[in-house]
Design goal:
2 domains, 8 strands, 14% strand, eight-stranded mixed β-sheet, 367 residues
Amino acid sequence: MTITNRVKACGRIVVVLLVLNGSLLGQLFAQHGGIDVNIELPVAGVTFRFIESNGIKMRIAEAGTGPLVLLAHGWPESWYSWRHQMTMLADAGYHAVAPDMRGYGETDKPAAVDDYDVNHVAGDLVGILDALGEETAILVGHDWGAIVAWTTVLLHPSRFTALIAMSVPYGGRVAQSPMESWQEAFGENFFYILYHNEPGGIAEAEYDADPRGLISRLYLSPNSPRVQPAITDPLRSAGGWIGRLGAPMGLPDWLLQEDLDYVVSQFENSGFRGGMNYYRNFHRNWEITEHLQGAKIKIPVLFIAGSRDMVIAGAEKESLTATISRATEDLRDVVLIPEIGHWVQQEAPKEVNQAISDFLTEIHANP
């Protein structure tokens, strides 16, 4: 070997050692609250770190600097549901933060079902503000994140300056427990929320056995073509949920294969039990929020949904406005995006981002 080749070989060894050393130091740094180097960053400009919040370790994704906008995801989702909004908010001069909610992704997953009630999850969101040294934030929530967000701003009104809720409207605390209402309405027929509440972990056992089967059947548009479902009998005794959902014949145009793969990988690693435990607190949440009966949200509110979201069941803007106005004092707008389904911020990111931007401008929240 010539002297030149020896120098090159030594150089390559030094580079390898530096990379390995940097990787080890990076992993130690990540364990103490720094950037999580064990995960490839799937969105340019979005980084990860771990924080302590409300007695648990939470992984947060964040982008940008400026006023804090906190984004709470639903089920079965992760921080990744906000990828389009995070980059927009960062470009507009905000600090966008999207946690893996309690029980999801790389955030801690307490064992007790009661640890997922709305008091705990609201405490997690407030704890994120504390960990980041922020007095207030604008709160955004979709699906279960919206359910949590509506109650969080009532429980902690001094910590949030505005609310953007998506998919799930709120008209105030209902007179009857939602669980009792659904049990009366569905009886012996299948309903996924009742299924999630069955004892013995039946739902997560089904989903853990086939995460891709479930998520690929849910992450579709209203008009996405499907094959005929294996289970058509409405009775619960006929089977679980995946077999009732026709398999997709292709991906919707808003979802890339790598998007689906990433979300599936999150549940392959974390399992579904954490998300199920939110559903198992519907009745408890109703019980422990009796003091919120008649309470109204005073901060500015925006509601966004797809017009074909199954959650709003065909409701139009006028009826949704009337419902939400019962529980709010400053509802600025109800935005329904035509022909869009449940995954509104992913299905129609341009329209959702514009609605968010217009709202933030209207309430003078611009950086």
